[in-house]
Amino acid sequence: PWEKDIMTETMLPTKLFEFMSLGIPVIAPNFGEFSRMLVDKQTAFLFSSVERIPRILEGLYLESSVLNKMS
């Protein structure tokens, strides 16, 4: 996982936009540019601690309709 620093606060990886354009769900940390560019449960799934990632993945698995809305 990324740590908060000047680089992670001010950059967005190109892959983020590639995934979004292909309809692939984005799971991203809820800080820095991510939190300014993405809306939780609308354009991406944001987490503030890595312990939340398994719950996000489980939710995506159980609620396939969410995937259809985002793609």
Please describe what this structure looks like:
By secondary structure, the protein is mainly α. It contains 5 helices and 2 strands; from the N terminus they run H-H-E-H-E-H-H. Strands 1-2 form a two-stranded parallel sheet. The longest helix has 10 residues, at 53-62. The N and C termini lie far apart (25 Å).
Features:
mainly alpha; 8% strand; two-stranded parallel ribbon; 2 strands; 71 residues
Mean of residue pLDDT? 83
User: What summary fits the major beta sheet?
Assistant: 2 strands, parallel
Q: Helix coverage percent of residues? A: 40-55%
Number of helices: 5
The radius of gyration computed from the alpha-carbon positions, rounded to a whole number of angstroms, is 12 Å
Task: Bin the strand percentage.
Answer: 5-15%
Strand order in the sheet with the most strands: 1-2
Uncertain segments: none
Shape: globular
Structural class: mainly alpha
In total, the number of strands is: 2
N-end to C-end Cα span: 25 Å
